[in-house]
Amino acid sequence: MIRSVWFGIALLVGALPLGLGAQLDAPMASSSFGACTRDTCMWVPEFAKQKVYRRGAFAYSVRMPPSEEGGTFVLRRNRKVLLTTPLKELSASVSVVWSQKDDWFAITWSDGGAVGGFHTRVFHVAGDEVRETQAVARAFHDFRSRHSCKERGENVQAYRWDEASESLVLVMSVYPTSDCGKEMGHTEAYFVQATDGAILQHFDLAQLKAYMKTYPQW
Fold this sequence. Notes:
mainly beta
């Protein structure tokens, strides 16, 4: 099943393969793709047909307006709404990556299709309280201080939660288009502490590819 899911994604994405740099694969805005494997669910929300996904006692979805631009992420447990939060300018795919203990999750969404821009927010669940943390800011600032694209911007995507360090693996990339010049598609990864965004480890592309081979997302 995992192989068929991966082939399905490969047919839908419009991004460069990671081996050439650029962001993680994601479906195009016009697709009706939706799939879950391991700790990740990825889908393209639709106004006419709201997809609902489950993780243990949790159920979550994205409500889309008729224009299908912008969206609202909703998290429930036993029919009780725990979180309702906007995903600014959402217009394509959403992915949700859960920690092994189901007490953390990261939402990544695109505001422009399969190549971005991608944004990520991180939340902690404790009882009925769901709290957002600044897990992304430090790594994003570090990446942008060295690699950026004035014309297009940069992408942030959550890859997985690393069991050994209990950290979140974030993939940072420069927009993969020619107007970004020599920075086009430059990609790195950061292992960050979810509580405050402290950087625990930093990978270049070669190290990230090796890590992804050992710990595939799909």
